[in-house]
Amino acid sequence: MLGRRRSLGEALSRTRSVFGRIGTMLTASDITEETWDDLEEILIQGDVGPEVALRLVDRMRERARDGRLRMASDVEGDLKQEMLAVLESKLARPDEEPRTLTVIMLVGVNGSGKTTSVGKLARYYAARGHRVMVAAADTFRAAAVEQLRVWTERAGADIVAHQQGADPGAVVYDAIRASRARGFDLLLVDTAGRLHTKFNLMAELKKVADVARRSVHRAPHEVLLVLDATTGQNAILQAQHFRDAAGLTGVVLAKLDGTAKGGVVFSIANELGVPVRFVGTGEGVDDLEEFNAQRFVDGLFERDQA
After folding, report:
1. pLDDT at 284
2. What pTM, to 2 d.p., does this model score?
């Protein structure tokens, strides 16, 4: 799993196979009603979601009516600007006030790539000078702790873990004490995967957050939901429940390299009101990037990618 770091452009190759059709479609010399129908269809196929697709097409129609767009070949540049505006409207930065210990909690459903994302985030922050501790608060899944140990070792981070079936809150409490005693400044909390329909498990997230809050001022300072990009629009309903239960500050979009549904980032921004903070670009420990809206939109329309 170690090796060359994958770029965002490479990770978007499957999604770009859909969005690339926009450039081909816009080679016609004139704008017609069929132009807008085709554009809306491609955007929906790219998983931007019906609401965002309709809004984008309506903006293009309005510009054409006003005479600001005269040729089909001019549409792509304006479309990119409108897509960028959707994403940048939800790019508020997290609270970065000075503190001795920052606590980041990761939540998500089973199989979303959460534990892997914790390892990648540990690597990301360690590479930027942080001393990173990981709390193995997924105490229900038998292999969870061992899987997390492997990832934290690759990332150069430390880990606090209890036995299977232990109280997740106790793990977090001990991890906070260990972080302070040993001079760590960033704690990543890996919580158990849970279905958004399991209300008792969702309520447990609040209890884990309360443990962190009682021990560290205003913790958790970030609550990041890990979404599997391959599930596309189906991830939005999950995310809404996690947002209500855990007070999300952002999204980690995992497995972007394995799907043509990367357009879901637009629905995340539009419907959830929280920013995409990171994207997973591959299977290696370094295959994680902080989300950049401009590079993402540009990447959707790049030509001649190897």
Report:
1. 93
2. 0.92
